[in-house]
Amino acid sequence: MRRIGIALIVAGILTGIAGLGVLAYTIVHYLDQKSVKSIHIPPGNETTTDPIQLIPDRPSRIAISMDVSTKPTKAEKGREGEISTPRYKFGVSYKIIDEKGNMLAHEDRPIEWNRGMKATDKVIVENTHATLTVKKSFSIFKVPKPGIIRISIRVSPDVEYGAVASNVILRVHNNLPQFESFIALGVIMTMAGPIIFVTGLIILIIGITRAAETLYAVCPVNPAEGAQLQGEAQAYGNYGNVAGMTGEGRPGWGRYAEGRMVGKPTSDETVLSVICHLAPLAGTIMVIGHVLIPLIILITKGKESEFVAYNARESLNFQLSMTIYWICTVVLMFVLVGILIAVPLAIFELSVMIKASIKASRGERYRVPMCIRFVK
Predict the structure, then answer these.
(1) Which residues pair with 75 in a beta bridge?
(2) What pTM does this model have?
């Protein structure tokens, strides 16, 4: 079960990263759509294009970009560029037909903004007006074979706010990626990654727990021998050493406390120790959850078991150290060095946590490497 758990943990991490990669790829390509045709059109007049050849049966769309000059407007400099209050409303009506005259798409939709403050990175503010670049995409359509279309389009003047449009460009995009499919795939993978990860984590903890229970099963003794050992344990007090039984005798025998074997960790102690090392993986979904989990175990159970306290301290120190390392890595990403460090650091963190949990399940004390020991 442990191998299955580890495999699912790795699969969950890779699935989540792949999902984020798909979403990033989709966003980048959506913002970088290439046009197959750019046509300057005069505002206010209806324009019909010459025949345009597109790849048939592939998603296509038209878009408009233009420079808009608004009436006098308040403006001030902001963090993201010039902040202005432009108001404009241009009517746009178009129809797209194929070579047989069949209607492929048509819309009558305004290009407008009248909802208060707007931030833009391409606004030029002057004393009496502000000029900005406006872009608008319209509905997707498909072109039947042989892929020839004509577009009739009209950009009406702004009669409501008096804004003026210039440099109006009609762009035709063809062979668009199926953004909806990529977005759906990215979202599913991004959501499935944590689910697979947590499932693997649970399976790994169960597997380690079962292995610990088997490894530390107490050997049966006959009643007379058990009574004698019980009396010897009580003679030494709650935590007295039984002579010859300090973990070097029979498996499962060692120190006794109130008749209970304490020379080696009990199954409950090993389970708590394993949780100290593995639970922070799931705890990362919360803010500072990776630090809170071992800290809570240290506070609530550390006084009852020195073995649990040791592992909780090691896990807590390791998580605090990794937090510092990751902050430094993120800062270094601005100079690209952090990108080279991120993957090895993630592999190191995961491998140390798994190794520490396996050692804890065997009742062994594992000193975590590259760890700043804040808590001693």
Answers:
(1) 84
(2) 0.44
